[in-house]
Inverse folding.
């Protein structure tokens, strides 16, 4: 599943229109449109991904999937890397094992 398909499914699941989501997270409708069109020039901003998950009321698993499909890491993972070299090492080991 693509990020775009997943976001559309979440909008449907939570009964939120694209226009309403734009209002909730204070982004330009054109910006959301680029997110949903898979515009190759578009770069997903973690703060917008966080806002989407928060305002839709996503579960923790749905939130993580939003970040994964957008090719981003949730902020708490980045923070853990910055604070703990051991966490970064374990993640690299896990990635090699996959």
């Amino acid at each position: 599943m693509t990020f775009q398909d997943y976001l559309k499914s979440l909008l449907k699941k939570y009964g939120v229109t694209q226009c309403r989501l734009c209002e909730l997270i204070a982004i330009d409708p054109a910006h959301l449109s680029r997110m949903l069109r898979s515009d190759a020039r578009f770069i997903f901003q973690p703060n917008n991904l966080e806002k989407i998950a928060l305002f839709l009321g996503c579960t923790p698993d749905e939130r993580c999937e939003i970040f994964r499909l957008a090719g981003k890491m949730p902020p708490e993972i980045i923070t853990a890397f910055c604070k703990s070299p051991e966490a970064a090492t374990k993640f690299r080991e896990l990635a090699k094992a996959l």
Remarks:
- The mean pLDDT is 86.
